[in-house]
Amino acid sequence: MERPVDFTQSYDVVIAGGGNAALCAAIAARRGGASVAVVEKAPRFYRGGNTRHTRNMRCAHDSATETLSGPYTEDEFFDDLLRVTQGKTNPDLARMMIRRSKDMLTWITEQGVRFQPSLGGTLSLGRTNSFFLGGGRAMLNALYRTAESLGVHVVYDAEITDLELDGTRFVAAEVTTPQGKRRLPGHALVAASGGFEANIDWLKEGWGEIAENFLIRGTPYNRGSLLRTLIGKGMQQIGDPTQCHAVAIDARAPKYDGGIITRLDCVVFGIVVNRDCQRFYDEGEDIWPKRYAIWGRLVAAQPGQIAYIIFDARSLKLFMPSLFPPVTGASIEALAGKLDLDPAALRATVDRFNAAVQPGQFDDTILDGCHTEGLTPAKTNWARRIEEGPFYAYPVRPGITFTYLGVAVDDEARVQLAGGGRAENIWAAGEIMAGNVLGQGYAAGIGMTIGSVFGRLAGEGASSHASR
User: Fold this and answer.
1) Percent of residues, the chain, with pLDDT higher than 90
2) How much is the pLDDT for 123?
3) Residue 344: helix, strand or coil by DSSP?
4) Residue 234 in contact with residue 417, Cβ under 8 Å?
5) Mean pLDDT score across all residues of the chain
6) How many domains does the chain have?
7) Quick one: pLDDT at residue 1?
């Protein structure tokens, strides 16, 4: 049974946000004996932020399970994180997160979440990532059911728009609701309200006008108002405003909330050209889940922030398709015409690529070494001639999932102060502090790891503080 937030009372723990990080914090705090109020900006139907669009989470584990095909050690996880971030991470926090992730599969199952064997194809995640049975919304609904059964109070269509502090101590939140502004006092605050990816004006501060051409894969409600407030009140900012989880998504996707079904996993099976029909990066650099998140930034750097994935009939069924059908042509020239590209230029690029492809045994399940020679940029794996019609293409634009600029935290998820030290009773979890772990880059499932591990930590810490 849902319990609405009562604005006439004070809560032990006030939680901003309603996604995975917020719910893990709420459940942990409530299990610690605290009274808990969750303040979710979205309407009930759209609750949960970007968690609604997720499929899996990445956790270290020592052996195979019913849903995981083999071990994924702490050291391997850390090496993968170092590779995708190119070392731009807080190593102590990262190692702590990875160590604690080993407990999360059990803990989150205890909260009602169920897993299934992983999907196949380009995902290649059967060993490393646990897939939610029913996807992110089912996972989210399970957490809400548990939170509600424990007595967590929730208010929807409500946003924390200001904070009342006494020095570094949180006293109360100003909550803007459809009925007006309300004061919500509490003994501790957990900020788990996401990034600012839906705030195009804020994106422009880092990216410039090209941000107008970005699509937002996730919720339109993550506009960063609490993040602005925290930074404005002396909390330590961390991260680069242009760093984010950005992937190449179908250019026909809606401006907001397209989610996972607009992502395209076929880059490795063809070539990617810009509107001038020029390739601009190695499409076969690494196994897809470790490198898919670089393609949003790559496309953002192209003219008009648009690109086109070109492949032939042999590759059509090797990947999970987009919500939208591919553009099809009986010839490369016909395909170019449908894409408003120069047919001669696209033909020339395809011919140069085909001529550079070396003999090899194509195998989409491994780094197969099928490569080009004498071509810049090279394609280092899965290079196969594009020659068997019909020919296909997907137009792609940068799809922003979440931003990395956030607030600094310590290994207890406590928010750090710009002037040194830490806030007395303010914690943060999820995307609002993801930049502590993700200085750049991404690997599939890490966002959920950050949210669940730091969410649980924040909830436990806030509950313990409130009980003193």
Assistant:
1) 91
2) 55
3) helix
4) yes
5) 95
6) 2
7) 73
